[in-house]
């Protein structure tokens, strides 16, 4: 298939190249680009590789210099797999990958594919975040010869994309539009469409502690747990569209004892949202519940709230902060990953399919997670903390 040169700005272009040229470039440059990764060294393969099918291969150029590549190939009758993108280190950090991605996805769409898949080391937020912003969804974690990978899938079919939200429990199926089509394709009978109930207005109570300015007229107020719980009960149904398991009876046991930390978000004298965290174990705080009412979303408020809460939890003596989110809730996953959280698991519980994120205040622990995922090679003190020593250090 003929593909045009893609202008990536600032003197960068992506140009179609033959598969053989891509393989030659890999042999010449991949050590420079990926040399810091940690791989298992297999013996030479005994079998020939399967045929690739249709391939999409671009060389990335700065002027006339080849500085990287993007290679994808057909996986099945619906799916194209983004197998390999590499950029020389001196050209990284310039938004090149983010600018390349829309043009590559358009090429897949034009070619007739329904799904786009890729795998990335689970701590490689520099690649995972642009993928999530482009609409990819987290669909799994796998341990392979290169470490721990997160599996991402983008659907070029809106109904399938919506079906994944239904699967994860992030959204309920609806009768009309794309969600109605998703429900039909899942064999579900969606509920009838009804107008959403008006959002109650809850006045901000007097705060027992100093407020924190979140910008644009928003403030953050520390409050007691009982006050938080009263507000939560009034506004819960206005804040969430997710679907949790409907337990047939109230819990029979008390919540486990532990420290709780609650805040309310205020705007013009009204409650705009909240945040609740609690102690998870002797080192870890758990961000249980953060919500913004619909009128206050899409303004970067969550991204401004996060560092304030993280600083408060660090000041309380915690080493780690964990949180769980619906696996398709990119609106929360992206700011969490940008704030330094790492993807550390997937679990299925009463709320749906949840991504487990963990943030560490200790750089040594963050580096240990890079080693676990295979993004970095073990060396020095960080490797020794995991009982890993490279031959050159022995």
TrEMBL record:
<protein>
    <submittedName>
        <fullName>Acetyltransferase</fullName>
    </submittedName>
</protein>
<feature type="region of interest" description="Disordered">
    <location>
        <begin position="373"/>
        <end position="394"/>
    </location>
</feature>
<feature type="domain" description="N-acetyltransferase">
    <location>
        <begin position="12"/>
        <end position="157"/>
    </location>
</feature>
<dbReference type="InterPro" id="IPR016181">
    <property type="entry name" value="Acyl_CoA_acyltransferase"/>
</dbReference>
<keyword id="KW-0808">Transferase</keyword>
<dbReference type="InterPro" id="IPR050680">
    <property type="entry name" value="YpeA/RimI_acetyltransf"/>
</dbReference>
<feature type="compositionally biased region" description="Low complexity">
    <location>
        <begin position="171"/>
        <end position="180"/>
    </location>
</feature>
<feature type="compositionally biased region" description="Basic residues">
    <location>
        <begin position="373"/>
        <end position="384"/>
    </location>
</feature>
<keyword id="KW-0012">Acyltransferase</keyword>
<dbReference type="Pfam" id="PF00583">
    <property type="entry name" value="Acetyltransf_1"/>
</dbReference>
<dbReference type="InterPro" id="IPR000182">
    <property type="entry name" value="GNAT_dom"/>
</dbReference>
<feature type="domain" description="N-acetyltransferase">
    <location>
        <begin position="218"/>
        <end position="363"/>
    </location>
</feature>
<feature type="region of interest" description="Disordered">
    <location>
        <begin position="171"/>
        <end position="212"/>
    </location>
</feature>
């Amino acid at each position: 298939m003929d593909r045009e040169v893609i202008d990536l700005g600032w003197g960068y272009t992506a140009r179609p190249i033959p598969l053989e040229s891509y393989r030659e470039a890999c042999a010449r440059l991949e050590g420079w680009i990926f040399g810091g990764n940690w791989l298992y060294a297999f013996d030479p393969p005994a079998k020939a590789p399967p045929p690739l099918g249709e391939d999409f291969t671009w060389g990335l150029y700065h002027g006339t210099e080849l500085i990287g590549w993007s290679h994808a190939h057909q996986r099945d009758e619906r799916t194209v797999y983004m197998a390999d993108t590499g950029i020389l280190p001196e050209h990284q950090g310039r938004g090149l990958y983010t600018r390349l991605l829309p043009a590559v996805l358009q090429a897949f769409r034009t070619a007739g594919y329904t799904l786009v898949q890729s795998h990335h080391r689970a701590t490689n937020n520099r690649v995972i975040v642009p993928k999530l912003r482009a609409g990819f969804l987290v669909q799994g974690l796998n341990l392979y010869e290169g470490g721990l990978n997160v599996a991402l899938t983008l659907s070029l079919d809106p109904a399938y994309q919506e079906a994944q939200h239904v699967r994860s429990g992030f959204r309920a199926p609806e009768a009309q539009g794309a969600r109605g089509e998703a429900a039909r394709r899942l064999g579900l009978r969606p509920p009838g469409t009804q107008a959403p109930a008006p959002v109650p207005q809850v006045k901000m109570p007097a705060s027992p502690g100093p407020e924190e300015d979140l910008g644009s007229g928003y403030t953050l107020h520390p409050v007691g747990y009982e006050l938080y719980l009263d507000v939560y009960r009034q506004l819960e149904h206005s804040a969430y569209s997710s679907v949790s398991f409907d337990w047939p009876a109230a819990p029979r046991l008390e919540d486990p004892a532990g420290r709780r930390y609650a805040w309310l978000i205020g705007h013009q004298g009204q409650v705009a949202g909240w945040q609740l965290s609690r102690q998870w174990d002797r080192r870890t705080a758990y961000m249980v519940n953060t919500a913004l009412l619909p009128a206050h979303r899409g303004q970067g408020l969550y991204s401004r709230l996060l560092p304030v809460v993280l600083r408060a939890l660090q000041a309380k003596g915690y080493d780690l902060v964990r949180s769980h989110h619906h696996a398709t809730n990119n609106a929360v996953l992206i700011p969490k990953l940008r704030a330094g959280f790492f993807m550390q698991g997937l679990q299925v519980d009463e709320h749906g399919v949840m991504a487990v994120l963990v943030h560490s205040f200790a750089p040594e622990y963050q580096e240990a997670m890079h080693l676990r995922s295979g993004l970095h090679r073990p060396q020095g003190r960080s490797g020794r903390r995991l009982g890993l020593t490279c031959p050159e250090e022995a």
